[in-house]
Structure formats: C-alpha cells, structure tokens
Amino acid sequence: MSFYTIFKRDLKNLILSPVLVTYNTVFPFLIVLILGYLTSGNYDGTNVTSYDYYGVSIIIFCVIFVSATASNSFMEARVKSSNLRIMYSPINVSSIYLSKITSTFVFTSVCFLVLMAILKLSLNVNYGGKNTIYVIILLELFNFLSAAVGILFCCIFKSEELANKILSPFLNIFGILGGVFFQIDSFGKTVEKISYISPIKWVDQAIFKIIYDNDLSYFGPTVIILILVTLICLMFCKLTFKVEDYV
Description:
By secondary structure, the chain is mainly alpha-helical. The chain has helices at 3-15, 18-24, 26-38, 50-64, 66-75, 77-80, 84-87, 93-123, 132-157, 160-177, 189-194, 199-213, 219-240. The radius of gyration is 19 Å and the shape is globular.
C-alpha cells in the first residue's frame, strides 16, 4: 500500500464528512456575516470595514482549529476501525501520519480558498489586491502547521478526544489574544504584550500589514518561524508515533 493510496482514502473521508465541510466553509462565512453586521458601526467603512476585519481574522481563527480536523481524520473512532489493513501492510510508518497531515491540509486549503472567494465576491472583503498571494502563503503555511500540531497531539495522547480536550482551551485563548473577536490592543500596553504569546497574533499582524500598509517586512520572518515550528512538530510526530496506538 502506497502513501498515495492512504492519502486518497483520507482525503475522501474528509470530503464525505458533511460536518467537516460545513465547519470549514458555511460556519465561518456565517460568523463573518453576523459579526460584521453587528460591529459595522465601529468601523469608518472607508479604509477598512467590519467585514474586512472579520473576513481575515475569522479565517485565521479557523486555520488554527484545523488541528481539530486533523485529529478527527487521524484517530476518530469511525476511522480507526478500518486501520488494521494499513497497520499490517508493508509501508513506511511515517507515511501513516504524513498522509493525515497532507490530506487535512489539502482539504482545508480548498475550503478556505473557496471561502475567501465567496467573502470577496459577496462582502467585498479586502485581501490585499496584488499582494493577496502573500496572504495566501501565510495562511497555507499556518494551515499546514495546525494540521501537524493536531496529529502530534494525537501521537502524544493516543486519543482524538483527549487531544482535542487539551488543545481546545489553548486555541480559544490564542484566538482571543490574537484579536479574532475584538481588537485586543485597545486594552492597553500590558495586554498587547501578552497577546504576542498567540501565534494568531503573529500571523494576523503580518497579514494586516501586507493588506493595508503594503508592508512585507513581517512576511519573511513569519514564514521562517512557521516552517521551523512545523519541522519541529513533524520531528516529534516521528518520535512519538507508534503503529499499535493507531488501531
């Protein structure tokens, strides 16, 4: 059994899950629509609208929660029941968890790109015009990192449920500190400094500088950090993954 065969099966499982498709497309669109409408009076509507703000921040928030989608694709009870054939097939062990990361990344990437297109066409969300490609690169690298984190937690804790229980509080805290639901900087310098523990804050700041200041100074360092952290996660996946825990 090849990596490609496992990858196709994993991708098919994700595509055929109505819950995951809805969670990664319809749900964020509705959140942007509702929050954008409720807070429209807080923005001048000239340089940046409420839909511009939430059209970016909610997608970033959804990207960090890709880790939950990844853990679901890896050790969800329905999926685990069919894994005996893979366990005893002559395949590189690393291919098992790498296929989960890759399939999750491909699936969510398509979902988010479709979502961005819909938000642009329906709400005219600004993604940077000619600099949109840089925004997409940052989102995709962050997406791959999130998928790797989700799989790593499954490798460590041997359970999708336990991995998500541990991850969820941290992801929500990172979302709040990253300014997903409201701009945290208005709470003062101390809170602003604390917010930098959130990876959402780094990505969010880099993206908004690209979109509104045409400033790519944060792009390179953010790309390097995301790649390095992803490689570290992949290394720990290799060290902690045991085939017998996969079944």
